[in-house]
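Contributing new records

If you add data, match the layout below exactly. Sequence lines come first and carry their own label; structure lines follow with theirs. Keep one chain per record. Anything else will be rejected by the validation script.
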Amino acid sequence: MNAYAYLIGWRIVRFLPEKFIYKVFNLIGDYVFKKNGRSIQRLRSNMQRVSGVRDSALEDLTKAAMRSYMRYWCDTFRLPDWSASKIDRDVELINPEVFTGPLDAGKGVVVALPHSGNWDHAAAYFLGRGYKAATVAERLKPEKVFQAFLKYREELGLEVLSTDMRTVPTLIKRAKEGFIIALVADRDLSSNGVEVSFFGAAAKMPAGPMVIAEKAGVDLVGAFISYTETSIKITFEKLDYSVQSQADFFERELRKHPVDWHMLQRIWLND
């Protein structure tokens, strides 16, 4: 999606009838899939890696994954207008005690997530229950799009930090103060990622969640978000202080729900 599409989405999509606009976004996803550009080729390659399917089954999975990605964007544009009851409706939690237990005891938790399902919906769900959360914003271009994302996430109640030398110390401080520290962690955006085994091949993932959790003395928890017919499902698992533990959790969950992994970029080192 280009910059104008993002900005138009926030201004228009939220006001259109729900059933109509989700059908439109499905059609957009189908159109992009049919064009078979570089992003779709990468998505197909990633789907094959995590599912093992080929031929027509791989085409069906890739098309469905693109529809899931477009559902994320349609949700994103409409989420600011959702009521608390709509945010809460039908959310399914698996093993939530490893996440909410420390928070209810006044301790922070660092959460490592992949790009799956709708993590903003998950944030809104827990922020609505009185928990505090902080995250880091990936710098987007152009600046107008980045500022729109920043405003969107801050309006949800998230404290959003930009990436600079103060980011990690601030996140450690927030974790010690009882915050949820939510970090998307399946793709390394720096040159400092840790090499892991992921679906039997080498990939790099960020060490940030592990480092922050260990230095703050709080639990590192994996969270995987997948779509259900009407809402989202969030699966939690307490992790060791290791990037490989993070990768192993992502792999286990992706084997169950590959369709909701919105990864249109390169992950594996040999790709």
